[in-house]
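Sequence only, no structure available. Ideas?
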Amino acid sequence: MHICLQSAEAQADAIARREISAVELLDATIDRYERLNPAINAVVVTQLDVARDRATAADSATVGGESWGPLHGLPMTIKEAWDWIGSPSTSGHAELSDWRPEHNSEAIDRLLAAGAVIYGKTNLPVSMADWQTFNPVYGTTSNPWNTDLIPGGSSGGSAAALAAGLTALELGSDIGASIRNPAHYCGVFGHKPTFGLVPIAGHGNPGSPTMLDIGVGGPMARYASDLTLGLDTVAGAGGLDARGWKLDLPSPRKHNPQDLRVAVMLESDCCVVQDSELTDQLATTVAALGELGVTLDYHARPEIDLEQAHHHYMMLLRSATGSEYLADAYEAQKEHAARFGAGDRDYRAVAAAGITLSHWEWARYHRAREDDRLAWDAFFDDYDLLLCPTAASAAYPHDHQGERADRTIPVNGGQESTVDQLFWAGLSCGVYLPGTVAPAGLTASGVPCGLQIVAGHLRDRESIAFASFMERELGGYQVPPGCES
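Reply:
I predicted one. Tokens follow.
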């Protein structure tokens, strides 16, 4: 297998063993970037001279018997929204094209301290607010499996770069499946950590809050073991909390898959009709896990009202994202919020109601969420994991017409609202739980899909361990056609 398609661990190990130099590995990665990126437009910002200087320094350190850390000499990319000195952080806004940060994001400093050689940034939608990846600054990113299809969003460039072998490790972010959805569409691994596990200061527009409710940063990779490598590198208390708080994530409670008790929910009345091709493939994957000895329960659910919980998520999600609106944009939402008050429940009305919540109203939703979090925790005392979809379909064709709220996706020969899929995004995200997406084979149409693995609070290692089990027993990442060499 081409060195650039191997795991991040394998690449870093090859450098440590002097089987390849950091400069040689970077050159091989840049060669793939130059050959494959034009067709998919995943990597949209580069600092190649900076990367080459750092790779050269890494090789000098290696010769001197020094290692900078577990990512020593590893070439990689990061989502465009993370601050990296010398590069723009536009989140797709043209007016921010000339802005450059004075400091790296804390998470980026951790990657560099571990030895990473960052050479570029990957594409994202405007304001990271879409499951497609296009914007007026960098254009459109396509899925390496089929350039007519979307790669997902908002970490769409991240997933596309991984699938094509342009990077072995990525740092994405997620508030509405923005790590999990692209991983699912592109056939790679993604982990949305427990809320607060990874510092997100220096992520988003200049002046964004250091902690945005529900939003997290997390690793994406082609191999499950690299999720652990990435998470261990960037996780931990940040900012002022780093003076005293120390992270000690628990190990998985069980190590034998035959001892696992796993709940399964592949469809829900709270979501649009699930596309049968996706459901069939996920069902086949889950059944295979059962044949391997995992105890499956298709009826187990937490003691909460899932439809009500989804409404709570939507209100809190839009309250969080709306906190970054400028005054004029905020005021413009009040008309739609008034429609919500009059009983309308279309997406624009719900979103506007969330954006314009008073603190008193927000606190009521938050208290309800806290009740749901306790119910979920009790559920994960009885069940180790929950398996569910990430979206209602596999990757679908590009569609840039109109606004996201008006677009639809093809499902079982018909069209369903794109935004209705947010149920699967918020099921775990809204209550701060970790969720890992692992490749689950190809649909009948020959495109990849992923299975979402939800674990209990701070039990991130359990969902990642199950993803590793799936990879080992059923197979994981597959190379997209044309990306083999």
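The longest strand covers residues 435-442.
Hope that gets you unstuck.
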